[in-house]
User: Fold this.
Amino acid sequence: MTSTAQPPQSGARGAHPEHLGHVIFIAAAAAMGGFLFGYDSAVINGAVEAIRDRYEVGSAALAQVIAIALIGCAIGAATAGRIADRIGRIRCMQISAVLFTVSAVGSALPFALYDLAFWRVIGGFAIGMASVIGPAYIAEVSPAAYRGRLGSFQQAAIVIGIAISQLVNWGILNAADGDQRGKVMGLEAWQVMLGVMVIPAVIYGLLSFAIPESPRFLISASRDERAREVLREVEGDIDLDARVAEIEHAMKSEHKSTFKDLLGGTFFFKPIVWIGIGLSVFQQFVGINVAFYYSSTLWQSVGVDPTDSFLYSFTTSIINIIGTVIAMIFVDRIGRRPLALIGSVGMVIGLGLEAWAFSYDLVDGKLPATQGWVALIAAHVFVLFFALSWGVVVWVFLGEMFPNKLRAAALGVAAAAQWIANWAITASFPSLADWNLSMTYVIYTVFAALSIPFVLKFVKETKGKTLEEMG
Assistant:
């Protein structure tokens, strides 16, 4: 999708108070894609052990079923921009809503492991589309004065989606008397967990009919009169002709970066591209998605009751929301780099304590009491420090650090690196945990520790700089 950057204009511009409520509704409706992104990503956490038991699969095969959705994510993210530029942002949202719905129904009613994997890929494709279209659409319809705050709706929706999925899983498990394969509404509990996503998916689809197409797309499709109507709705009493001319000028003057623009330097890519890739890889290699895809399995493996393990997954998600809010408050106050470093130190402590706790032998199928409490608290500490730093800061860096002529292509490469790294961690965890759970967390601790010199040596602060100053 084309960049949303526009040349600075003199004078303040923003929605009038009577328009702001409408703009907030539009942004919130679009952010439902982010909610589904978070929900679909994390809901599988409640089904892992039941899938293992029902289909009698080993850790390696199970990991591929869990991780295969990330292949769909990568494809969806790579193609969403072109789809949205061709048929519009709203149509793209509607396609995503249909795919989320189909994936939820298919995942709830699989007849074999391989078709469950297929429905996971379909859901992943929808996640990838939502990860691209939501932020782009919100940026394009938001008045300049509110763009930053409205843009944060997407990240907030993602972490809320994660938390709600864990709360729903916990409620369904309680309805099934703590048995993931117990019957609820005629299905096994884990099937209901995966199927409930139909509800937010349908809501997302319905909301997409209640919000306007992006003025930017309308202008690109020569529908200037409708673009003026939408601009009047979201920005109030402004010079519509001048605003349309401004958008047209920005679109004509944009440099559509390509993969070739990234080549150069000693190691294939230009150094700044490698720094972006490094940020993406470190964000995933600390093992954050283990906390969202496998936390119930992890706690059950060290003797925690299934119902309690689901509750801990929910409390971890609440900590994730709190950390995200902290990051949103401080990222512009203390800067991206200091926040990343604070987060890295906190993650090293949390992950190191988890590695220590998991190094103890189980007694009657459980960790000793002290180590069990340390592991539980340390897991929450790790998620908190990740959420208040790398969870938000990496995306801010990636949006700001690249020169204008490289930005779109470089961001695409860095995002692809993130999906690949996410897949590597997700696919490897069950086998690594079977091998040695403590050493697995030592590996994550090492990556968290290495992120500190990486930031200190290679990552420059972008706070307070215009995108033009990036080169």
